[in-house]
Design a protein that fits this description.
two-stranded antiparallel ribbon, about 325 residues
């Protein structure tokens, strides 16, 4: 990749950051993860308490990208057809034709995703993995690009359904969205106290996203960095191999090979976001917590010892030798 390609993609990232920043105050780290996911074509799970701009951030990014956007509020009575669509009967000739649901969009916001039952999650799983939807006898491709940006509330558990591990593994990132600092909250008060809230303009297009993904293919990943990714992922399965033998009994299941693929592409996208045509071990370290925290299953003993997935991943990153 030459310098002109790097400058073009850096300019795209800068435009999107600036335009989203006209509406959303702070949350730069989460926005960077969404931009990385956009470059990788991966889905993102945003976890945080209500009122910290998760939905606003996703909607604003969709506006800035100029892409088709749909929002579905997941509830316990939601049906798979409410997301994917259904068949409509034509009484004239006795035929059925598919009516497409809100999943046929470039960006789908699955709001409070853990409130929907297993059948809905299963229907969404096909869309996330295969980029297609089956309605009756018809299998329909989803538009390109297609991203699921889901939110969930970690506090309120009544009326929720834990996401299946197979579905969690389909998310490129699980990002924890925290409360804003006091200075940012003051700016939020000033910006949104008026009746008319700011709205982002389209500063990109689907063609820009395609160019971004083509550029990502050219970002260099050295063999030593690839081996470092494998060392980190293997350490989640066998902590003793990384010199963390005390953690071995506390892990039920480590990250899958999909985690290695995600770390590979996300590290290269993070390098591109930083204006580089090559990925470094530091890119891997910065991106790894968001890639791994939802792919590691710890035991009940770990919970008793106050070991969270974030602490587990942090210890691995501090222990695995960096090339």
């Amino acid at each position: 990749m030459d310098n002109s390609d790097i400058r073009a993609q850096s300019a795209l990232f800068d435009r999107l950051r600036e335009e989203v920043g006209r509406v959303v105050v702070g949350q730069e780290r989460v926005l960077d993860r969404l931009l990385v996911a956009l470059a990788c074509g991966g889905h993102v799970l945003l976890e945080g308490v209500p009122g910290i701009a998760k939905t606003t951030l996703v909607r604003t990014l969709a506006d800035a990208l100029g892409l088709d956007f749909r929002r579905v509020s997941f509830t316990p009575d939601l049906l798979p057809s409410d997301v994917t669509g259904t068949q409509v009967y034509n009484p004239k000739d006795g035929s059925f034709t598919p009516k497409r649901g809100p999943v046929f969009a470039n960006l789908l916001l699955a709001d409070e995703i853990n409130r929907a039952p297993a059948k809905v999650q299963s229907a969404l799983l096909e869309a996330m993995q295969e980029r297609q939807v089956t309605i009756g006898d018809d299998t329909l491709p989803l538009p390109d690009p297609f991203l699921v940006l889901a939110t969930q509330n970690p506090i309120e558990q009544e009326g929720t359904y834990p996401l299946p591990e197979a579905q969690l593994d389909r998310f490129l990132f699980k990002c924890v969205v925290s409360f804003p600092p006091r200075a940012d909250e003051r700016r939020i008060m000033e910006r949104f106290s008026r009746r008319e809230s700011p709205r982002a303009r389209a500063v990109a297009s689907a063609q820009d996203v395609e160019a971004l993904r083509s550029a990502l293919d050219s970002v260099y990943l050295d063999d030593k960095v690839a081996d470092y990714i494998l060392d980190v992922v293997e350490a989640t399965r066998d902590p003793a191999k990384a010199g963390l033998g005390d953690l071995a009994p506390l892990v039920e299941l480590g990250a899958s090979p999909r985690a290695s693929l995600c770390l590979d592409s996300a590290s290269r996208a993070h390098a591109l976001l930083r204006g580089r045509a090559y990925a470094t071990p530091q890119d891997v370290k910065e991106i790894a917590p968001d890639v791994l925290r939802h792919r590691v299953i710890l035991s009940y003993e770990a919970e008793a010892e106050d070991l969270t997935p974030d602490k587990f991943v942090s210890r691995i990153l501090s222990q695995v030798p960096v090339p």
